[in-house]
Amino acid sequence: MPRSKLLSFFLPALAGALFIAIWHFIRVSLSEDFRFLLPAPTEVIAAFREHGDELWRATLNTTAGATLGFLAAVAVSFTLSLLLSLSPLVRVTFYPYLMLLQMTPIIVFAPILVLWVGPGLKSVTIITFLICFFPLAVNTTQGLVSTDRNLVELFRLYRATKFQEILRLRIPAALPYFFTGLRIAATLAPIGALVGDYTAGSSAGDGGGLGFQTIIYSSQAKYPALFATAAACCALGFIFVAGVLSLSWLTLHQWHDSYERADI
Amino acid sequence: MSFAVTAKPSVSASPAVEFRSVEKRYGQGPIILDAFSLSAAHGDFIALIGPSGCGKSTLLKLVAGLSPVSRGELIFSTSSASNRLADATISSSASSRDDLAYVFQEPTLLPWLTVAKNVALPLNLRAVPSAQRTALVRDALELVGLTPRADYYPRQLSGGQKMRVSIARALVLSPQILLLDEPFGALDEMTRDHLNEELLAIRERLRWTAFFVTHSVAEAVFLANRIIIMSANPGRLHREIRVDLPYPRTPATRRDPAYHRLVDEVSQLLRSIEDLATV
User: Fold this and answer.
1) Considering the domain boundaries, does residue A94 fall inside one?
2) Distance from CA of B236 to the nearest CA of A (A)
3) Chain A partners of B165 at a C-beta cutoff of 8 Å?
4) Do B50 and B56 touch, CB atoms closer than 8 A?
5) B158: buried, middle or exposed (CB in 10 Å: 19+, 13-18, 0-12)?
6) Rounded to a whole number, what is the distance in angstroms from the first to the last CA of chain A?
7) DSSP of A57-86, one letter per residue?
8) Does residue B182 sit within a domain?
9) ipTM score of complex
10) How far does B225 lie from chain A, in Å, by closest CA?
11) pLDDT band at B81, cuts 50/70/90?
C-alpha cells in the first residue's frame, strides 16, 4: 500500500481511538449520579445487542423512506432543472419559489402532511424529498446553464438539434455539478428521513423508523439505546454518501479534473 | 491514405466567399464591421490581423453563420474540386455553409469523450453512416499525427495535442472553408511554429479556403497568401498585402529575406494603425 493510502487509513483510525478515549475519560470524571447521561461505549454496544431486532427493523424503515425520498428528489429535480435551463424567462419566474421552498421549515408542515397522506412511510418519503430537492435542483440547473459557449456554438455550427445539444452536450457538461448536488442530498436524506419519522412516524404496520425509536427510547430514559440509534443513523448516512461517491467516481474519474490526483 | 491529392485549387470563376459592403452591429450597438468588401478565391489562405476590436473574430462568426449580417451581402459558392475525404458526406441539398469548419481559440473539446470520439462528433451530429465514420476519423487523426492517442481523454494531452484534435475534428467533414480564430495563440512559440508547418502540409493535400485570425505577424506571413490588415472602431479593411512566397513553405521559408521584408512591412503598417488609434 502506498504511503498516502496508509496515512488516509491510519490517521482517521487514530482520531477515532482518541475520540473514544476522551469520551471514556469524561465519563469516569463524572460523579456516579450523572454517569447515566453519558453511556460508556460498552453500554452502547450492549444496547445494540438488547434492542438489535427493533433497531434493525427501524433502520430498514428509515432506509426505505430515505431512499424513496432521495430518488424521487433526483428524478423530479432533474426534470425541473432541464425545464429551467431551457429558458431564462422560466428561470426568473420560478427561481424565487425554489428559494422559498428551501427556507420553509418543513417540520412545521409535518402535522398537516400526516393529515393529508397519513403517518408512516408516505410522510417520511415526502419530507425527505422536500429536504433533498433544493441542493439537487440548484446545482443541476447551474450545471445545465454553465455550458462552455464555444461548445454550444460548435454544436450550432454543425446544426445540432436542441435534443442533441441537451443530450450530448448540456447534460454531460452538467454532471460534475449534478454530483455536487447529489453529495449534499446524500448527507441530507438519512437526516431528513429521521426527522420526518420523528414528526410523522407511526408504529402502525411494520413499525416506525429510527426517529420513532428516538421518541420511545427518550421517553423510557434508555440513553444507551439512543446512542445506538444515532450510530445506526450515522451508518445509514455513511452508506448513502459512499454510494454517491462511488457513482461519482465511476462517472467522472476518467475525464474530470477533480479526479486528477488525490494526494495528501 | 485515401486522399485524392489535388495540388492546385480548382479554377473557378466565382469566388469561394465574397463580402459585399458587409456591415455588422449587435442590436443598436456601435458598428463592429463597416463596409467590408473582400473576395476570397477557392484555395486562398487569408490571414486577418489588426488591433483588438477590429472585428476579426466577428468576421469569422458571420462566415460561419453563427451571427447574421446587418447590412450588405455575404455570398458563397461551392467548388467542384474533388479534394474531399469522402463525397458521400456532403448531402446534395445542403447549402454551402454546411461545408465549413471552425477552429476556436481554445481546443473546445468535449472532456468526457476520447480523442477519437471528439473527432467523430461532427459525423455523429450530421448522422454520417457509422460504416464511414471509422475510416474518416482514422484518416483525420492520421492527418494530424495523433493516431496513437485515439483512446486518450483530452486532459491527458498537451496543449498542442489538444489543438491538433481540434483541427482533426474540423477537417473530418472535409470542409471547403476553414475558419481559424487565433488557434495557436495560447501555445508556446516552438509548438506554434511546428503546428503552422503541419497546417500547411495538410493544406497541400486538402485545399480549403482558409480565414485565419492572428495577432502574430510572423505567423500571418508564413501561412497566408493574402494578409488583410484591419483597423478598429469601427472595424474596417485597412490594407491588403499579397504574400508571394511560394508554397509549399517550410522552416527554410523563415530564413528567406523576402519573408523578413514582408514581416517588416506588415509590422510597420500595424504600428501606423495603432499610432492613429492613440492620437
Assistant:
1) yes
2) 25
3) none
4) yes
5) exposed
6) 14
7) HHHHHHHHHHHHHHHHHHHHHHHHHHHHHH
8) yes
9) 0.84
10) 26
11) very low
The reported pTM is 0.84
Residues 6+ apart with CB under 8 A from A227: A39, A43, A44, A47
DSSP secondary structure code for residue B271 in this structure: H
| Chain B residue with minimum CA distance to A162 | B125
Number of folded domains that form chain B: 1
Per-residue pLDDT tens over the stretch B182-226: 999 889 999 999 999 999 999 988 889 999 999 999 999 999 999
Which grid cell sits at B185?
A: 495563440
Does the residue B263 lie in any domain?
yes
A215: in domain: yes
Chain B CB contacts of A260 under 8 Å are 155
State yes or no: cis peptide before B246, omega within 30 of 0. Answer: no
B113: part of which helix (H) or strand (E)? none
Helix extents (H) in A104-202: 106-117, 121-145, 149-157, 162-164, 171-200
Per-residue pLDDT reduced to its tens digit, A9-47: 899 999 999 999 998 888 888 888 888 888 888 889 999
In a domain? residue A27: no
SS3 A261: coil
pLDDT in tens, A86-110: 888 988 898 888 888 888 888 888 8
Residue A132 lies in a domain: yes
CATH of the domain at B124: 3.40.50.300
Residue A192: name the closest of A72, A97, A78, A69 by CA.
A69
Give how many domains chain A has, as a whole number: 1
